[in-house]
Amino acid sequence: MIGDPVAPHVLSVDSTSGILSIFGAITAMNSKLTHVDKKGRPRMVDIGKKTSTSRSALAEARIFFPEAVAVALRAEGMHSAKGPVIDTAIIAGTMAVKRTHELIPFCHPMAIDGCRFDVEFVSGAELAIRCEVSITHKTGVEMEALTGASIAALTVYDMCKALSHEIVIGEIRLLDKRGGKRTVKAGRVRK
């Protein structure tokens, strides 16, 4: 709740051993986080010694329209009073992919090799936006793909909000990641 920053994070510990247990869990978690140093301070990961490999990521954002809005948009060829909804979203998403490092503090600046969007209705009132990003580099592009899908979804909302403020941006998730240490397929880590 806004104005009450403590409420969602209330933690009650009745004993010293409970506090030590929580501290141990946080310390263990920090040792697995690559953007946290041994003192618990944030840092950018040094990728200097990594080998460049071919990498790609696919992310998806879902948008839910009120049924009447979806019908109206389809009838107008996905144009709103502001202009072409999908084309504008793709341009905004592409711009976001290229500027992810300016939005998310520990992302490395990268020269993206490819960026592609697929946008389609997957049901009568549910729009799926998929952003696929590729690169040959020392680090992955999942944050770029997630940023592209997110900003494209926000752009759709902006382009359509005059029709309804009941439009909902739903799940935003990584669908696929290749290259690097982990492979993700269908939203699940594969070995």
Provide an overview of this structure:
The protein is α+β, with helices and mostly antiparallel strands and 191 residues long. The protein has two domains: 1-43, no CATH class; 53-190, Molybdopterin cofactor biosynthesis C (MoaC) domain (Alpha-Beta Plaits, 2-Layer Sandwich). It is built from five helices and eight strands. It has helices spanning 16-32, 67-75, 85-98, 100-103, 142-160; strands at 53-64, 79-80, 83-84, 114-121, 126-137, 168-178, 183-185, 188-190. The chain has a six-stranded antiparallel beta sheet with strand order 4-5-1-6-7-8, covered by helices on one side. A two-stranded antiparallel sheet has the order 2-3. Strand 4 and strand 5 (126-137) form a beta hairpin. Helix 3 (85-98) runs antiparallel to helix 5. The two termini are 39 Å apart.
Keywords:
single chain, 191 residues, alpha+beta, Alpha-Beta Plaits, 2 domains, six-stranded antiparallel sheet, 5 helices, 8 strands, 28% strand, elongated, disordered N terminus
Overall domain count:
2
Number-wise, the strands total 8
> What quaternary form is this?
single chain
Structural class by sheet pairing and helices: alpha+beta
Mean pLDDT: 85
CATH homologous superfamily classification of the largest domain: Molybdopterin cofactor biosynthesis C (MoaC) domain
Question: Between the first and last Cα atoms, what is the distance in angstroms?
Answer: 39 Å
Low-confidence stretches: 1-12, 22-27
Task: Give the spatial strand order of the biggest sheet.
Answer: 4-5-1-6-7-8
The coarse silhouette is: elongated
The percent range for strand residues is: 25-35%
Compute the number of helices: 5
| SSE topology string | HEHEEHHEEHEEE
Question: What's the helical proportion of residues?
Answer: 25-40%
Cα-based radius of gyration, to the nearest Å: 20 Å
Proper CATH architecture of the largest domain: 2-Layer Sandwich
CATH class of the largest domain: Alpha Beta
What is the CATH topology assignment of the largest domain?
Alpha-Beta Plaits
Main sheet makeup: 6 strands, antiparallel
